[in-house]
Design brief:
This protein is an all-alpha fold and 83 residues long. It is built from four helices and no strands. Helix 1 crosses helix 2 and helix 3 crosses helix 4.
């Protein structure tokens, strides 16, 4: 099950106590995913710390940019999932 479907099922269960109508919640989940496309500065800094492990000599800005791009690519891939 892809993340967008899991989220829609969770919203359906929260609202209706059943996952049966999960497809009705897809537009709301997609809207939230779209809103999350851009990482916050804090997220970029946190992700930059991970990238530093692999690229210890890169500039801080480059590490944060790499982390932000990775986040965007993962969100884009999630958005393209079939549901």
């Amino acid at each position: 099950m892809i993340p967008i479907e899991r989220a829609a099922r969770a919203l359906s269960a929260l609202e209706t106590q059943s996952e049966d109508r999960w497809r009705d919640y897809l537009p709301a989940v997609v809207a939230v995913v779209d809103a999350l496309h851009e990482p916050s500065e804090f997220m970029q800094e946190a992700g930059g710390e991970i990238f530093r492990t692999y690229n210890p000599h890169h500039a801080e800005f480059a590490l944060q940019s790499d982390a932000a791009n990775c986040w965007r690519l993962m969100i884009d891939a999630m958005r393209k999932g079939n549901f």
